[in-house]
Structure formats: C-alpha cells, structure tokens
Specification:
mainly alpha, single chain, 6 helices
Length: 138
Amino acid sequence: MNISHLLAHRAAYLQKARLANLAYAHETLRAFANRLAQAGITGRVRLQSTSPDDERYLPTLTALDSHQSVIEEHFTDDDAIELTDLIGFVSGEEDIDLTLSARDVAETLLAPVRCELESKGVNLPPLAESAAHPPRQA
C-alpha cells in the first residue's frame, strides 16, 4: 500500500474508524449500564470531566442519591476516565458534567450512539433488559 492509495481512500477510512469507535462506545456504555444495574446503584449519578480550576484532576463519578462507597467498590478512576472520553467523543463536548438517573443511563447515553450506528446500516443487538431498566429504588 502506498501513500497515494491511503490519501485517495482517506474519507472511507475515516468513516470506518468512526463507526468502529461508535461500536466500541456502544458496547462500553452498554456494559457500564449493566454494571450499574448489577451493583444495585439507583438514583442519580454525576459524571464530571477534569477541571483543574475546581481542583478536579481526574474525572469523577459521584452517587448523588445513594452511597458513594458502592460506586467506589464497582468503578475505578479508569472507568470514569473512559466514560468521560466516550461521552466526549459521542457528544463532541470537551467538558462533561452530566447528571442522570442510574435507571436512564442505557437509554440516555446509548440512544445517540444507536441512532448513528443504525443510520449507517449497522445491526445492533437489543438492549439487555437489565441495562435498560435497572431495579427501582425503594
């Protein structure tokens, strides 16, 4: 393969790379929603990207309506980093400050990813019932 071939097919390669990254985002966000459900995390969670001005040097995942220790038991700093990166990729936003119900994570975060993938002809598996509808908080 030579450079002229790569340049001639650049647009197609970029489109395939975006689709591959969207597929990765889909499966990672789907797994995140499943992990929230399996951990029994209900209520609202907040994901924030880094903000040196606020002395937040790593992204944070915070339980707003339940125990933070459950979040810390099931999710690492690397998970929060990956989530902010994926949401930034999907949304095009650099600064992430997202608060949502743990029950709505699958629907809220996966909807735009699924829509774009489906519009490009990608066949997707149905959302797992546990990801789409974690148990309700008592």
